[in-house]
Amino acid sequence: MTTHEFFVDMTCEGCSGAVTRVLKKLDVKFDIDLPNKKVFIDSDKDTDVLLETLKKTGKTVTYIGPK
Question: What is the CA radius of gyration of the chain?
């Protein structure tokens, strides 16, 4: 399983809550680093699927790469 690192423009707990809601639907293991605006996702799913899912939060999302 690969750990993918994403930048998500989160500013508060509400933002990280939105990320949590969309990722729970994908059934993946993830970790949110709110101060650094990073999301780490452990998944074998395609990065485009993960990126599109994160974009459902309405936040600016950038794929940084595998960790």
Answer: 10
CA pair distance 50, 43, nearest whole angstrom: 9
User: What is the model's pTM?
Assistant: 0.94
Model confidence pLDDT, tens digit, residues 21-45: 999 999 999 999 999 999 999 999 9
At 30, is the secondary structure helix, strand, or coil? strand
Residue 10 near residue 54 (C-beta atoms within 8 A): no
- Within 13 Å of residue 23, how many CA atoms lie on the same side as its CB? 22
Gap between the Cα atoms of 58 and 18, Å rounded: 9
Three-state SS at 2: strand
